Amino acid sequence: MRNTMLGFVALALAACQSAPAVPQTGAPASDPVTVPPQPALNPGAIPSGSALMDQSVTITPPAKGVPTRYAAFSGIWAGRLEGTYEAKVAVQTISPNGEVTVTFAWGNLGDNNPGEAAGAGRIAGKTLKLGRLPNGADVSLVMLPDGTLAGTYTLAGQTYTGVFVRQ
To answer: What keywords are assigned to this protein (predicted)?
Structure first.
């Protein structure tokens, strides 16, 4: 009972958080875009257990035939699950029927060590649901009115929630 109440409190706190609006840029290009190189960091400056995404991950801007409601998911998103655990998701491609390819990276997450997995999924309405990741996790992301994503990550019977902001 106590854990259930704590879970509801954590969910309520996560729902109350808001992120600053991210301005939208002009129409996306039709060529794949590589994530710009990040400045070199001192390895000691990266906290152990951080969510790290491979620099070779590319985002292909949605084609003109992709509905705007689907195209809104395109890009790299970062957030914290349960306000503590770092996670990133790169929505790499989106087809006109809502099928997507993604890369999902997580930091230390409960008993799960940091990692990264490629996956696929589908957008239905305002929800992007990924197929089960190779580590056994189920991930869904819901587009919120403020342009952020409410994420749910479930692994081994444990569910983590958080808000993701476009990078």
So the answer is: Signal
Distance separating alpha carbons of residues 82 and 18, to the nearest angstrom: 14
How is residue 61 written in tokens? 């801007």
> What are 69's two structure tokens?
């409601």
- CATH code of 49-166, in short, is 2.40.128
Burial degree of 152 (CB within 10 A; 0-12, 13-18, 19+): middle
- Which two tokens mark 165? 């902001």
CA of residue 5 relative to chain centroid, distance:
26
Taking alpha carbons only, the member of 18, 105, 28, 12 closest to residue 73 is 28
Q: How far is 69 from 22, CA to CA, in rounded Å?
A: 16
pTM here is 0.70
Helix segments in the chain, DSSP class H: 2-16, 68-71
Instruction: For residue 52, give the nearest of 27, 24, 76, 83 by alpha carbon.
Output: 76
Residue stretches of the chain with pLDDT short of 50 = 1-47
